[in-house]
Every structure is written in C-alpha cells, then in structure tokens.
Write a structure and sequence with these properties.
Helix content is 0%, strand content 52%. It is mainly β. β7 and β8 form a beta hairpin.
Length: 116
C-alpha cells in the first residue's frame, strides 16, 4: 500500500525556519518525481516545488524561490522541504506528492503556521 507521511510542521515566527519531511513506503520511491504543494485557507492547492528522479532537476514556485530548498534521500525514501525566511503568507497545509506518468500518491499534509 503506497503511503506518504509528512512531518515537521508547526508554529514559527516570521523570519524563522522549518524543515518538513515526507517519508514514503509501499512503492519504488527512487523512480518517482517528488513534489511539495501547499494549500492556504480559502485558496487552491499550489505547487511549491519539485525534485526529479535522481535529484538532478529542481523547480520552485516564484514565491518561494531562494528561500525554500527541496532535497531527497533515496536511501531513506524521504523527501525534504527546507524553508527559510518564512513569511505569514507561507501559512498553509503542506502536502507531498509522488508521481510518475501513471501513478500519483499524496500525503495527508502537515500544518505550517507563520505568526508572531
């Protein structure tokens, strides 16, 4: 049974940092494109960034470029989202997604709240 479990969310002050983790199981993790999405209250889910198979190609949304970094550890079946210089607008539920041309798996999400 494919499963993605996010962790690491919480409350952080503006300007602070958090690292989210997404642990995968039940499928061939290293063969999947891994992405982070987020959804703020009242807004549509949006792509934060992606990391390719092998970790060679990265893609970031304009709003987070230069502040967020995605990485993956295929030995641990885990993808990470390092978030620096957090802003209140970054407040959202963050989801990881694993995808290929034929399969898509989502995690349940983890809440990130940026507030003083």
């Amino acid at each position: 049974q494919p499963q993605l479990v996010e962790s690491g969310g919480g409350l952080v002050q503006p300007g602070g940092s958090l690292t989210l983790s997404c642990a995968a199981s039940g499928f061939n993790f290293r063969g999947f494109l891994m992405s982070w999405f987020r959804q703020a209250p009242g807004k549509e889910r949006e792509l934060v960034g992606s990391i390719s198979v092998g970790g060679i190609i990265y893609n970031y949304a304009r709003a987070v470029k230069g502040r967020f970094t995605i990485s993956r550890d295929d030995a641990k079946n885990t993808v990470y989202l390092q978030m620096n210089s957090l802003k209140p607008d970054d407040t959202a539920v963050y989801f990881c997604k694993a995808s290929t041309a034929t399969d898509n798996y989502w995690g349940q999400g983890t809440q990130v709240t940026v507030s003083s």
